[in-house]
Amino acid sequence: MLLSLLVLAGLQSQAQPSICDSLSIVGSQLNLTVEPIYDTLLYDIDYIWSSSLEENILEFDSCFWGSCILNIYNYNNTTGLSYDTLFFSIQYIDTLWNSYACTSPLIWNGISWTNSGPYGDQTQSPTGIENINPIYDNKIYDIMGRELLEIPSNMMYIKNYQLHIVK
Predict the structure, then answer these.
(1) Which of 5-9, 12-16, 49-53, 157-161 has the lowest mean pLDDT?
(2) Are residues 106 and 43 both part of a single domain?
(3) Structural domain tally of the chain?
(4) Angle at 51 between CA 48 and CA 53, to 5 degrees
(5) Is 140 contained in some domain?
(6) Domain contains 11
(7) For the segment 118-161, what is each residue's pLDDT rounded down to a tens digit?
(8) Cα(94)–Cα(103) distance, integer angstroms
């Protein structure tokens, strides 16, 4: 019985997928339609909007209790051109009235719009730094990072990425 309760609690505590995970994107670079694909029994979308990298709102719509499709006219008034990258944002609630928001970058690849996934998606974060190739140039630096012309006496210095201590 205890095991059953623990399993049930574990299943309920799993994160719900974001509505921004699945978008239908149709249209050209100048005119596009974006529709989130989601379970209408689990979520209600309050607002959807699109913006540019400069945070200019291109389109905004409220979607209370109904279909939620955003028609975007993608035009930069300053340059007279279309944007290559847009942000599509959604504010929504679940059946327990918990409020959520997500943002997904939309990128024009020259042929069509692609959804690169939710903005800030932690599943593809860097895990480390690799392939650093230091240059061993025999230059000498003090601890403050200032270049020195000769090896100092009675102080620490750095040469070829190694700390040296002179006594």
Answers:
(1) 5-9
(2) yes
(3) 2
(4) 150
(5) yes
(6) no
(7) 444 433 444 555 555 666 788 888 877 788 898 888 888 888 87
(8) 17
